[in-house]
Amino acid sequence: MKQKCKIWLRAARPFSLTASIIPVTIGAIFAGKESKFQFTYYLISLLAAVLLQASVNMLNDYDDFTNKVDTKESGSSSGVIFENLLTPGDLSKGGRLILASGCMLGLFLAFKKGDFILLLGTIGALSGYFYTGKPLMLKYRGLGAPLVFIIFGPLMVLGGYFVQLQRISASVLLLSIPIGLLTTAILHANDIRDIYNDKKAGIKTISIIIGRTNSCYIYYGLISFSYIVVLGIAYCKVIPIGSSLCLITLPAALKNMNKLHMSNGSTSELATLDQETAKLQGQFGVILIISILSSYIR
């Protein structure tokens, strides 16, 4: 049983789950200055977001396998199918079950907190399912990166905030931008690494459409603008000035950008760039959360 749980956890790609944990937490914490923090509802919204992402990761693995986008040699999936740890059918059923569980939590939140949560949840669930699912297969049509930005930026940050306050604000929308950019960089790193295999499979990602060189520039831009936006909104007092401590993570960001620059198209050199970008997003997000919390103590 313990071994089975480890396999399913691997299929969920735990290294990437900061992509949902950080935005929901930031949205909820940012609302804490204006009302009493509702911890139980925060946990429910966090679990719903994590289940959504975990299900998308599993369904993405299944769809990429059945559409021959991922192969044993590509190494771009969780590997549970190719190592015969789970069958494609198991992964599909598990992903759908986890997605349904997340939707149930979303419906509960919508019942308690209002129709806006229902709207956000519906967009998130449909976008997640059709990310690689038929008939839309959005990722295969070059829409993966903008979709990830919307879901893991504005949608989840606004969701975490709305659950606490039942309203939205321009400030929280601005705050969602750097988080969305960094999370999009995780996917974009993955897409740059997989250009050869994705092109061979006949799908189109932004990296394939615009080419590797331009894709590298986009990665540099996603990372750089995350810092620029945070410094800008801190200067404008949308968030505490202490949020500029996110600059502590800049060496890691520069290391990732240099790794991409020096890779010269080598897939093996970029094997872990998505994981390292996820780590950067997590560190950046944690510092942002701590800085916002610290401002409440004064």
From TrEMBL:
<keyword id="KW-1003">Cell membrane</keyword>
<keyword id="KW-1133">Transmembrane helix</keyword>
<feature type="transmembrane region" description="Helical">
    <location>
        <begin position="116"/>
        <end position="132"/>
    </location>
</feature>
<comment type="similarity">
    <text>Belongs to the MenA family. Type 1 subfamily.</text>
</comment>
<dbReference type="GO" id="GO:0046428">
    <property type="term" value="F:1,4-dihydroxy-2-naphthoate polyprenyltransferase activity"/>
</dbReference>
<dbReference type="GO" id="GO:0005886">
    <property type="term" value="C:plasma membrane"/>
</dbReference>
<keyword id="KW-0474">Menaquinone biosynthesis</keyword>
<keyword id="KW-0472">Membrane</keyword>
<dbReference type="InterPro" id="IPR004657">
    <property type="entry name" value="MenA"/>
</dbReference>
<dbReference type="GO" id="GO:0042371">
    <property type="term" value="P:vitamin K biosynthetic process"/>
</dbReference>
<comment type="function">
    <text>Conversion of 1,4-dihydroxy-2-naphthoate (DHNA) to demethylmenaquinone (DMK).</text>
</comment>
<protein>
    <recommendedName>
        <fullName>1,4-dihydroxy-2-naphthoate octaprenyltransferase</fullName>
        <ecNumber>2.5.1.74</ecNumber>
    </recommendedName>
</protein>
<dbReference type="InterPro" id="IPR000537">
    <property type="entry name" value="UbiA_prenyltransferase"/>
</dbReference>
<feature type="transmembrane region" description="Helical">
    <location>
        <begin position="144"/>
        <end position="162"/>
    </location>
</feature>
<feature type="transmembrane region" description="Helical">
    <location>
        <begin position="12"/>
        <end position="33"/>
    </location>
</feature>
<dbReference type="Pfam" id="PF01040">
    <property type="entry name" value="UbiA"/>
</dbReference>
<feature type="transmembrane region" description="Helical">
    <location>
        <begin position="39"/>
        <end position="59"/>
    </location>
</feature>
<keyword id="KW-0812">Transmembrane</keyword>
<comment type="pathway">
    <text>Quinol/quinone metabolism; menaquinone biosynthesis; menaquinol from 1,4-dihydroxy-2-naphthoate: step 1/2.</text>
</comment>
<feature type="transmembrane region" description="Helical">
    <location>
        <begin position="94"/>
        <end position="110"/>
    </location>
</feature>
<keyword id="KW-0808">Transferase</keyword>
<dbReference type="GO" id="GO:0009234">
    <property type="term" value="P:menaquinone biosynthetic process"/>
</dbReference>
<dbReference type="InterPro" id="IPR026046">
    <property type="entry name" value="UBIAD1"/>
</dbReference>
<feature type="transmembrane region" description="Helical">
    <location>
        <begin position="226"/>
        <end position="254"/>
    </location>
</feature>
<feature type="transmembrane region" description="Helical">
    <location>
        <begin position="168"/>
        <end position="189"/>
    </location>
</feature>
<dbReference type="InterPro" id="IPR044878">
    <property type="entry name" value="UbiA_sf"/>
</dbReference>
